Amino acid sequence: MIVCVAVVGHQNNPLYIQSFTDADDALKLHHIVHCSLDVVDERVNNPKKSGPTLNDTFLGLLYPTENYKVYGYLTNTKVKFILVTTDLDVRDADVRNFFRRFHAAYVDAVSNPFHVPDKKITSRTFADRVSTIVKSFGLSSAT
Amino acid sequence: MIGAGKIKQYANILEKPLGKGKQEVSLSAFAFLFSELVQYNQTQVDNISELETRLEDAGYAVGARVLELLCHREKGNRRETRLLGILSFVHSTVWKVLFGKVADSLEKGTEHEDEYMISEKELLVNKFISIPKDMGTFHCGAFVAGIVRGVLDNAGFPAVVTAHFVPVEGQQRPRTTILIKFAEEVLQREARLG
Question: Is Transferase among the key words of this record (chain A) (predicted)?
C-alpha cells in the first residue's frame, strides 16, 4: 500500500507531494520524505562503488523506518522521486516499473509550456495519472 | 490461412484508431513559426542584444524540457556526470532529435580550457533567414544557443553559450559556431573526478 509519493526539485524544494491514506498524519509523511532527502544526497555524493552503479537513476531502498519503506529515484536533472510504502514484501522490479511510469508522467507534466520550471506541478492530468499508477501498483503486487 | 492478412476496413473514418503519428514536423511550418517568433520579439525590444537575450531565453525553456524528455526516452538509466559525456550527448542525441542529424563537429577551444565549440555548416533555424546589413552581429542561432544552455544548465553544467558566424574561405556563406564556455565550478569538479 503506497501511502505517499513526492517529487523534489534539484534544490531540494518540493514540487509535488501526494498522500494516499487519510488515516496517517500528513505531517509525519512530509517529515519522512524530508529526511529521506539526506539519504539521497549521501548516496549521490559518496557512491559505494564506481562503475555501473555510479550513474544509475534508481536508488533503491533508501531506509526502512517503523512500518514504512522509502524508495528513491533520481533523474538526470537532479529531480528526485520519493516513494513511501507500507508493503513488507515489495519486489524490486515492481518499484522500478512504478518509477518508470511515474517518470513518464513527470516528463509529460514538465513538457507543458505553461509549467514554470522549479515551481509546483499544478496539472490535474498529472495528479490523475499518478493516482492511476499508484492504484495499479497496489494491484500488481497483490497477485 | 487465406485472408489472415486482410486489413480491417472501417466503415466510418472517425472509427479509425489514431496512430502514434510521425515524430517529425514539417520544416516550413517550423520556419514560419520561428520567423513569427523573431518578428514578435523585434517589436518588443529596443536593441539587438535584448532581442538575442529573448531568443536565448525562449531556447532555454525548450532545452530544459528536451533534457527531461530525452533522458527518459533514450538514456535508459544513466546520468551524465562527465564533461565529455554531456557534450557528446548534446552533439549527437539532442541534435538528432531536434534537427534530424548529428552536429557537424565538436571541438575543444585552444585559447581557454573551458571553451568548446559545436559547428554546423548551416543551422536549420537559419535556413530561410538572412540578416540585414544594419543588424551587424545578430544571429538567430541565439535560439539554438539557448537550447544548449538549457540542456547543460539543467544537467548540472552551468555555462555561457553563444552563437557566432565564422567566415570560411572558399564558401560565401559563413559557418555557424556555437561557443560553450563552462563555469569555474564545472572545471573544478571535472578535475576532482580525475
Answer: no
| Chain B residue with the nearest C-alpha to that of A112 | B65
Residue B115: strand pairing partners: B181
Residue-range domain boundaries for chain B: 27-193
ipTM: 0.72
Q: Which of A8, A4, A40 is nearest to A130 (CA)?
A: A4
Residue A100 corresponds to which cell in the numbers above?
A: 518508470
- The dotted CATH code for B27-193 is 3.30.1380.20
Q: Summarize pLDDT for B3-25 with one digit per residue, the tens.
A: 455 566 667 777 776 666 666 78
Q: B120: which DSSP letter?
A: E
Residues in chain A within 8 Å Cβ distance of B67: 76-77
| Chain A partners within 8 Å of B65 (Cβ) | 110-111
Please name the member of A55, A107, A113 whose beta carbon is closest to the beta carbon of B72. Answer: A107
